[in-house]
């Protein structure tokens, strides 16, 4: 018999769509996928080379649970250089991907009945990680009109004596929008007044466009730094999703608890990947510039093309690699004798009819939207948008 915990949890819906699209592809169907949540670039060679060297050198044993000092030190350098933040080794832990970092945090700080505020739309794993740790997700809706930044009044109303933390994700998956300084200051002020943690997922820090400045909320002042737990990783910045390296900076007591939890669950992150991560963070960063320029080109093409489609409207994202258009004007239209009534109906229709994979907004807590990843070639983006346009035009009223 399964535990109550296991029964409460569902598989990641973004991975579900992806596997469905992959199955169609495997069956020979020409599916164009806007579903993926990972860069389509290969990990740079100098990083792979560092991993190969680590293997040759026999760096293939257990390491310190929270990561080797050499990696913690380049993480510390990164925070200083990129975010103006000073951390000590005791305030850093390396885990098996940023998702694992977030899970360790959940294990370390949530208790039964604790409330965790999650602005919606949100990244799919946040609510489930809260629920898995006996806490309660409290959703605060955000709106395109505010560039999907949480409204201070709405946040204030969600705060109770049970509020333990707020999960912030800027730049955001799925919206592609980043918080500005003023909005972050508003959040910091509330966190300080009501004494809750800010869990700041900054995995898309390096992917910002149009001169957007990434600001870590922890950098706004000493007091807010002490209430903030920053999560970052190599998956998106260095095209290293498969290597599974993420890291956390935060109060030493929380980092210590996370390390204990990690020591009893996964032990150290992969030793070879840690060496690769040292190379990634300390080596040349021009790969990121090239990748970002390519994402930028695709972003502008995709969003402009989506806005040409009748019934679809999309904000120009300033970060990450997602477009998040509102498609709700299409709801109520007919595909044959089926009525498209939701984002999931639309995503399914587009997959089956247009052979285009994307993710329904309800997976992220907002049914008015759909998410398209542009971590795929410009050529495929062009073909995919044409297909969507055709399929939308074919819908009956
Ligand atoms: C991809 C992603 C992560 C997880 O990254 P890993 O390091 O591969 O675990 C975390 N947060 C958001 C918002 C993401 O999109």
Structural overview:
The chain has helices at about 5-10, 15-25, 45-55, 70-85, 100-110, 125-130, 150-160, 180-195, 220-225, 250-265, 270-280, 285-305, 345-355, 380-395, and strands at about 30-35, 90-95, 115-120, 135-140, 165-170, 195-200, 230-235, 245-250, 320-325, 335, 340, 355, 360, 370-375. It is of the alpha/beta class. The protein folds into 2 domains: about 5-40 and about 285-390, Aspartate Aminotransferase, domain 1 (Alpha-Beta Complex), CATH 3.90.1150; about 60-280, Type I PLP-dependent aspartate aminotransferase-like (Major domain) (Aspartate Aminotransferase, domain 2), CATH 3.40.640. β3, α6 (about 125-130) and β4 form a beta-alpha-beta unit. α4 (about 70-85) runs parallel beside α11 (about 270-280), α5 runs parallel beside α6 (about 125-130) and α12 (about 285-305) packs parallel to α14 (about 380-395). The structure holds pyridoxal-5'-phosphate. Pyridoxal-5'-phosphate binds near residues 97, 99, 173, 235 and 246.
């Amino acid at each position: 018999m399964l535990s109550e915990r296991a029964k409460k949890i569902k598989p990641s819906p973004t991975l579900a769509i992806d596997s469905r699209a992959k199955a169609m592809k495997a069956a020979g169907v020409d599916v164009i996928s806007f579903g993926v949540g990972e860069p389509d670039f290969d990990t740079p060679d100098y990083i792979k080379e560092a991993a190969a060297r680590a293997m040759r050198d026999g760096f293939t044993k257990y390491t310190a649970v929270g990561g080797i000092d050499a990696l913690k030190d380049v993480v510390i350098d990164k925070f200083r250089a990129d975010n103006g933040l000073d951390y000590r080794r005791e305030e850093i832990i390396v885990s098996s991907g940023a998702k694992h970092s977030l899970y360790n945090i959940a294990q370390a700080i949530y208790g039964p009945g604790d409330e965790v505020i999650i602005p919606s739309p949100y990244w799919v794993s946040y609510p489930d990680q809260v629920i898995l740790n006996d806490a309660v997700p409290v959703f605060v809706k955000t709106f395109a009109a505010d560039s999907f930044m949480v409204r201070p009044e709405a946040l204030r109303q969600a705060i109770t004596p049970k509020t333990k933390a707020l999960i912030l994700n800027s730049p955001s998956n799925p919206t592609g929008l980043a918080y500005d300084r003023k909005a972050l200051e508003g959040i910091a002020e509330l966190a300080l007044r009501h004494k809750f943690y800010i869990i700041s997922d900054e995995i898309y820090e390096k992917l910002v466009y149009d001169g957007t400045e990434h600001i870590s909320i922890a950098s706004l002042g000493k007091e807010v730094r002490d209430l903030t737990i920053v999560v970052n990783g190599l998956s998106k910045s260095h095209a290293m999703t498969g290597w599974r390296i993420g890291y956390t900076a935060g109060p030493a007591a929380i980092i210590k608890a996370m390390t204990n939890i990690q020591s009893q669950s996964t032990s150290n992150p992969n030793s070879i990947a840690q060496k690769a991560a040292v190379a990634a963070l300390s080596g040349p960063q021009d790969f990121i510039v090239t990748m970002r320029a390519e994402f930028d080109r695709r972003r502008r093409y995709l969003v402009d093309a989506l806005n040409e489609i009748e019934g679809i409207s999309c904000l120009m994202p300033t970060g990450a690699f997602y477009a998040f258009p509102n498609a709700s004007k299409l709801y109520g239209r007919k595909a044959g004798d089926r009525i498209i009534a939701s984002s999931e109906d639309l995503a399914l229709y587009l997959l089956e009819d247009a052979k285009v994979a994307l993710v329904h907004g309800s997976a992220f807590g907002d049914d008015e939207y759909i998410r398209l990843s542009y971590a795929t070639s410009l050529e495929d983006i062009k073909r995919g948008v044409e297909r969507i346009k055709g399929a939308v035009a074919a819908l009956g009223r």
